Amino acid sequence: MAEARSILTSDGVALEAEFAAPTDVPIRAAMVLCHPHPQYGGTMRSIVISALFEALPRSGVACLRFNFRGVEGSAGAHDEGRAEQLDVRAAVDALSVALPDQALFLTGWSFGADMALSTLHDHIVGWYAIAPPLRFASDFSAVANDARPKLLALAEHDEFREPASVRDEVSAWTATHTEVVPGASHFFVGRTDRVVELALGYVSSVGSAR
């Protein structure tokens, strides 16, 4: 059962959020989920984010999803990916306080993936970026050069950026692995199962390496 939460950003914006914890299995990790572009209908209930939010707690991964500023019940206004990075940091802070002893992963889809990959935070053990366009943030260098692991799940038939183009851009990034999801479009309709599978495999691999 998801619990409604409110997150306060460092610039005083209250964000709508939901938290889901495992009920029948022990917690083994925690994950913040960042949704797609607000100006194209993206919310914390978008298809890929919802698939992760529903599936991961059953496998021991507690999840916090939130609406970026200006979306649904969140205060503030869209800021073209600038102040949204404060939203991500606030979500990571909130989850790290709630579950201080758990490995914390930062995950995002599309615009949310770009926000995740431009957010450096001491509590993060790794980044999981799903179909990142790599165009909604101005600087990815801090995460790109960080030694912590990054997994990028790319859609084979992405309508917004081809997997080969993303792979070229991240080829020099540190500790970065890419996986192409066969048959998937940018929206992963019918392929969210593979996105979930990659998430669980990633959490397990990072956990065993710690």
Pick out its properties:
210 residues; alpha/beta; Rossmann fold; eight-stranded mixed beta sheet; globular
Q: What is the makeup of the main sheet?
A: 8 strands, mixed
Task: Report the portion of residues in β strands.
Answer: 25-35%
What distance separates the N and C termini? 30 Å
Strand and helix order: EEEHEHEHEHEHEH
Question: Given the C-alpha coordinates, what overall shape results?
Answer: globular
- CATH-wise, what's the superfamily? Alpha/Beta hydrolase fold, catalytic domain
> How do the strands line up in the largest sheet?
1-2-4-3-5-6-7-8
Class from secondary-structure proportions: alpha/beta
Give the count of structural domains. 1
Oligomer: single chain
Q: Please tally the β strands and state the result.
A: 8
Radius of gyration: 15 Å
CATH architecture descriptor name: 3-Layer(aba) Sandwich
Just give the CATH class. Answer: Alpha Beta
